[in-house]
Design a protein that fits this description.
With 108 residues, the protein is mostly helical. The chain is built from three helices and two strands, in the order E-E-H-H-H.
């Protein structure tokens, strides 16, 4: 959007383009000021959120560790239940659960 003067063959920015640049600089300055203000205003919220994030990450790590510790026990119990049921596909175990439900109804 530069204009060329035919009389002198010089190139210079138009007044409109110069005004746009000044307006853009002012807008950036206002946005930066607003950004800094918001950061200052909500700093405690950011700190609290960061602390919660760290606490959640720590809790999740502990949960994963606990799950990995109980994994062998879960597999051992699962095998024992399958063996106790007498079947490998769990069909016999389903019959036992139905029988237990009937016994509970009789007790009431």
């Amino acid at each position: 959007a530069e204009t060329t003067s035919s009389a002198t063959n010089t190139t210079f920015p138009s007044t409109y383009e110069a005004d746009e640049r000044i307006a853009a600089r002012a807008a950036v300055s206002v946005a930066d000021e607003k950004w800094r203000s918001l950061c200052t205003q909500h700093a405690s919220t950011f700190v609290a959120a960061e602390r919660r994030s760290v606490a959640v990450q720590s809790s999740l790590r502990e949960l994963l560790e606990a799950m990995s510790r109980v994994g062998p026990s879960v597999r051992r119990v699962e095998r024992a239940l399958k063996t106790e049921g007498g079947g490998t596909d769990g069909e016999d175990g389903d019959d036992e659960e139905e029988g237990e439900e009937e016994e509970e109804d009789d007790e009431e």
